[in-house]
């Protein structure tokens, strides 16, 4: 995993995939398309999907297949596509078994201050992607980074995903990118969760996926290291985060645009 982390420090990368693992077929279809695009455009890509989305708006919302089945599917993604994978953990005891499969362990935004979770994740030796809590200032994330480093793991990413002021909306402050890069970590822009309208549909969240390219492009122009995006073959039928997910057939033009912006920045 040191190779993956070092690559993320020196060049742009993408994290992409469906919000939750809905089925083996959807995951493999999406992963296969993303792997082809990553190879075609020469952009490092980590496949993302979650075996459990524990922070859904409603108790009746779809969460995923669970850890055992979910890890089987993610392992198949790695075997068939060669892509590294990232998935969320919510409890310290999940860290070790998930770390046997996932190349990157993701800490959800609402759990970014959970010391036991961060320590357990760090001890796997995997890359740790910590999403900035919607309730935290970017400079507050230094403490989360230090918890991982104090546990013997220097491989940390921080992800910006907007700040909440209530009223079913999120606001992104691009100043957070250089502020969090100041902790000597790569920073990722979550361009899809940042257009989410939390609880906007009452029993579920709404979203404004038409603004995903805007935020992704603005973040790359601001110097972000990586971009996170939830993508789905048919977002309108997705069981999780459909309103803020990017259609799979819209990914290639956006990646072409982002790569051009990254290259312009590098020049």
From TrEMBL:
InterPro entries: Aldolase_TIM, DAHP1/KDSA, KDO8P_synthase. Its main location: cytoplasm. SUPFAM superfamilies: Aldolase (SSF51569). Pathway: Bacterial outer membrane biogenesis; lipopolysaccharide biosynthesis; Carbohydrate biosynthesis; 3-deoxy-D-manno-octulosonate biosynthesis; 3-deoxy-D-manno-octulosonate from D-ribulose 5-phosphate: step 2/3. Keywords: Cytoplasm, Lipopolysaccharide biosynthesis, Transferase. Signal peptide: none annotated. It holds the Pfam family DAHP_synth_1. It catalyses: D-arabinose 5-phosphate + phosphoenolpyruvate + H2O = 3-deoxy-alpha-D-manno-2-octulosonate-8-phosphate + phosphate. HAMAP family: KDO8P_synth. This is 2-dehydro-3-deoxyphosphooctonate aldolase.
């Amino acid at each position: 995993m040191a190779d993956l982390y070092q690559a993320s420090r020196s060049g742009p990368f993408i994290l992409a995939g469906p919000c939750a693992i809905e089925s083996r077929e959807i995951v493999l279809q999406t992963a296969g398309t993303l792997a082809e695009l990553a190879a075609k455009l020469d952009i490092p890509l980590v496949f993302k999907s979650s075996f459990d989305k524990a922070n859904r708006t409603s108790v009746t919302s779809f969460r995923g297949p669970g850890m055992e089945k979910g890890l089987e599917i993610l392992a198949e993604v790695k075997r068939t596509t060669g892509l590294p994978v990232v998935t969320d953990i919510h409890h310290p005891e999940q860290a070790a078994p998930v770390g046997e499969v996932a190349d990157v362990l993701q800490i959800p935004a609402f759990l970014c201050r959970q010391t036991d979770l961060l320590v357990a994740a760090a001890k796997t030796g995997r890359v740790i992607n910590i999403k900035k809590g919607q309730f935290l200032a970017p400079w507050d994330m230094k403490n989360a980074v230090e918890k991982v480093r104090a546990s013997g793991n220097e491989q940390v990413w921080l992800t910006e995903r907007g700040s909440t002021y209530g009223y079913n909306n999120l606001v992104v402050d691009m100043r957070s990118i250089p502020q969090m890069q100041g902790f000597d970590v790569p920073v990722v822009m979550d361009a899809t969760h940042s257009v989410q309208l939390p609880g906007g549909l009452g029993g579920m969240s709404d979203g404004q996926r038409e603004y995903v390219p805007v935020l992704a492009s603005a973040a790359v122009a601001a110097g972000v290291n990586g971009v996170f995006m939830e993508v789905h073959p048919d977002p309108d039928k997705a069981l999780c985060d459909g309103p803020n997910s990017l259609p799979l057939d819209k990914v290639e033009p956006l990646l072409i645009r982002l790569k051009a912006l990254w290259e312009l920045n590098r020049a």
